[in-house]
Amino acid sequence: MQILLAPMDGLTDVYAREILTDVGGYDFCVTEFLRVTDTLFPKRVFYRRFPELNPGLMKSGQQISHTKSGVPVFLQLLGSDNNAMADNAAKAVQLGAQGIDLNFGCPAKTVNRRDGGASLLQYPDRIHQLVKSVRQSVPLHIPVTAKMRLGYEDQLLAHDNALAIQEGGADWLTIHARTKKDGYRPPAYWEALAPIKQLLSIPVIANGEIWSVEDYYLCQRRSTCESVMLGRGAMVSFDLALQIKCRLQGKEIAALNWPSVCNCLEKLYQLMDQNHELNKKYIAPRLKLWIKWLMPNYQQAEDIFNTLKRIKDPQSAIQLIRASAIS
Ligand SMILES: Cc1cc2nc3c(=O)[nH]c(=O)nc-3n(C[C@H](O)[C@H](O)[C@H](O)COP(=O)(O)O)c2cc1C
Question: For 93, 100, 123, 145, which has the most beta carbons within 10 A of its beta carbon?
Answer without folding.
Answer: 100
